Amino acid sequence: MANTNDIVIKEVVTKCDIRKFVKFQWRLFKDVPTYLPPLMLDEMTLLTKKNPSLEYCSLKMWMAYRDGKPVGRVAAIINPRVNETWNKKQVRFGWFDFIEDFDVCRLLLDKVIEYGKQNGMTTIEGPFGFNDMDKECWMIDNYDCRQNPSTLYNPEYYIRFIEQLGYEIKCRWQQYKVPASQPVPDKVARLNDLIMKKYDLRILRFKKRKEIMPYAYKFFDTLGKSFSILYDYVPLTPKETKYYIGQYFPFLDVDFTNLVVDKDDNIVAFGVSLPSLTEAYKKANGRLLPFGWFYLLRALKKYDTIDLMLNGVHPDWQKRGVHAIYYAEMNRNAIRHHVGPSYSNPQIIGNEAEKIWRTTYEATPLVTRAVFGKDI
């Protein structure tokens, strides 16, 4: 236990503690119009033994209190697979939220650093989750921008405080707002036809969600290989893969799940989007009952906005223009469904997918995000 300027730091131990830990952000951001509450069930699953990542990751959590009231929280994560793959000794901070008080920020990060040093770590980075399927990276501009369920909200003072503590940006991501129904550029359409004929590729088209399921494990295999060069990425374990298939595949939209396969039915590229769930998440306010399920299911059926969730190309097929195939297919489906705007997930600045938005389509930069770190 630490005490500085009447701030008390307590470790999160019991299930009741974890519930308080999860609920803290609701209290902190309740008056912020752009804050998007996550689902309580999802958060509790990620931070307890139900999360398959905890079979190999270590986790510690703390909350800060002043006068008995919570004023901050943080999680410390050590992912040995990340450290082994990238030759690091890194402790991660995540689930890091706090009132506008520099001492609260400093004391919570001090606990993460202390835990990291105790376990032989030499650097600290974040915000990260356990793996790249979890929320990561803070906004560093346009703090009032629209959020989607897969992104973190943070106010400006988070960045100001962490930079005061000597943390530096380690990697940047960019999100874009794209008119989804803009015409497919002629050069993209022509290039796609040439590429598909040259390499004997085809786009899978589905009528029912159950038709997608046989490709679930192939999808995650290609995802892992296509993301392998991205910052701090490691492939999911078999149990993690099974978990995320159960989490996401039942909700996929057949028209916006675009898989490109070769002549042997191997997935060489993919682009997955979902009808926007932003307004449904706001209405659910973190709870599936009594009406949260209704809001979410309705949003999946009636929509005019989509979120561009995941996209990638197998390393053996990169730099052949294959990215453009699934982008154009999503574009055509958006036109067919009269979709207005679409919002991309954070893309690491400079990778092939981010370059397409920046150079080929009419896209507006929405927000830049970053992770921060330093030696400890």
Give the arrangement of secondary structure elements.
Layout: E1 2-4, E2 7-11, H1 15-29, H2 40-46, E3 58-66, E4 69-78, H3 80-86, E5 90-98, H4 102-118, E6 123-126, E7 138-139, H5 156-164, E8 168-179, H6 186-199, E9 202-204, H7 216-226, H8 238-248, E10 257-261, E11 267-275, H9 278-284, H10 292-301, E12 306-313, H11 323-336, E13 341-344, E14 347-348, H12 352-359, E15 364-375
Parallel strand pairs: 5-6, 12-13
Antiparallel strand pairs: 1-2, 2-3, 3-4, 4-5, 6-15, 7-15, 8-13, 8-14, 8-15, 9-10, 10-11, 11-12
Query: What is the CATH domain class of the largest domain?
Result: Alpha Beta
Query: In total, how many beta strands?
Result: 15
Q: Characterize the largest beta sheet: strand count, sense, and whether it forms a barrel.
A: 15 strands, mixed
Number of domains: 2
CATH superfamily grouping of the largest domain: Gcn5-related N-acetyltransferase (GNAT)
| CATH topology description of the largest domain | Aminopeptidase
Query: How far from one another are the termini?
Result: 21 Å
What is the subunit organization of this protein? Answer: single chain
- Secondary structure category: alpha+beta
Tell me, briefly, the overall form: globular
Helix content: 25-40%
Topology as a string of helices (H) and strands (E): EEHHEEHEHEEHEHEHHEEHHEHEEHE
User: Quick check: average pLDDT?
Assistant: 92
Q: Give unreliable regions as ranges.
A: none
**Alpha carbon gyration radius:** 21 Å
The second-level CATH architecture of the largest domain is 3-Layer(aba) Sandwich
**SS field, number of helical segments:** 12
Strand content: 25-35%
